[in-house]
Amino acid sequence: MHRTDSLLILAAVGLAGASSSSAAQAAMYAASIRSGMPGVDSLVIAMIWWWVAVSAFAVVCGLAGGYRAVRSGVIRQPLILTFFLLYALTLRVDNVSLGWPWQFHLGMVMGRIGLGVNVVGAFLLTWYLKAIQRPPDHVPATSVETSIATESMPSSAS
Predict the structure, then answer these.
(1) pTM of the model
(2) Mind giving me the DSSP string for 84-119?
């Protein structure tokens, strides 16, 4: 694994661990809102609960994918790709912005719902996609075929 690949895995695992606070914060907010509160209706409640599930799933993907990458030495892990894809998204419903702890996002709002791109997540996703297209610096030991050259020895007849 390249050194930059290791840094990328470290960033993924670090962000996944820190992003668990985002999932917890969204869950606490979702549990505290009631449909009678001003500016809160069933769409906002549904979207917040949806975000709780998505962010929890993303955190698990980031941590598990990082663990697999470190254990195997191979950066190409579908779980890390899933984490970076989900980390690149932000969602806005009315005045509630659903995103990640470290974000700078660009987006557009249509009516009550807005969708955006987290610039930090997009940068990491681009870095990851470039990293998986590079050839590995070494071949894993399990895929190396060993061949033993045998010399034919003349047999001695007695």
Answers:
(1) 0.66
(2) HHHHTEEEEETTEEE--SS--EEEEEETTEEEEEEH
Q: What does the alpha-carbon distance between residue 64 and residue 36 come to, in Å, rounded to a whole number? A: 39
Tens of pLDDT, residue by residue over 85-132, are 888 888 777 766 776 655 666 777 777 788 888 888 888 889 889 888
Amino acid at 75: I
Tell me how far the alpha carbon of residue 58 is from its chain's centroid: 6
Bridge partners (DSSP) of residue 93 are 96, 113
Q: How far is CA 116 from CA 59, 82, 93, 142, in A?
A: 19, 17, 11, 42
> 148 by DSSP, 3-state: which?
coil
